[in-house]
Amino acid sequence: MGIVRDFSVESIANIREIIRVNVDEEEQWKICDWVSDWFIDDLDISDYLNNVEEYQAQMVDKYDIGSKKFDEILKNVHNLDSEYASKFQQLNERILAYKKYIVDIAYMLSPKKVSQNLDSYKKDLSKIKDDLCLSINEYLTNYGLNTDIVNSMASCYGFKENDIIILKKAYDAIKADCEEKDFKHDFFAYIAALCVNYDGDAFRWWATGDLPKTTEAIAYLKKIGLREYEVKQLFMVINKQHDASNYEKVKGYGLDFSEEEYNACFSNEKLKEENRKDFAHEMIALTIFNTDTISNGFLNLITGGEIDILSSFKGDAYSDGFGEIDQRSDIDVINIQKRLKDKDIFEVITTYNQEVLNGKVNRVNEFLKNYGNGDIKKGRKKIEEDLRSHSLGSDYISGDLGEDIKNAFIINGMTWGTKELNEYNMNTLDKMQEKQNDIQKKVDNNIKNFLKYIDNNMEA
Question: Is the pLDDT of residue 364 over 90?
Answer without folding.
Answer: yes
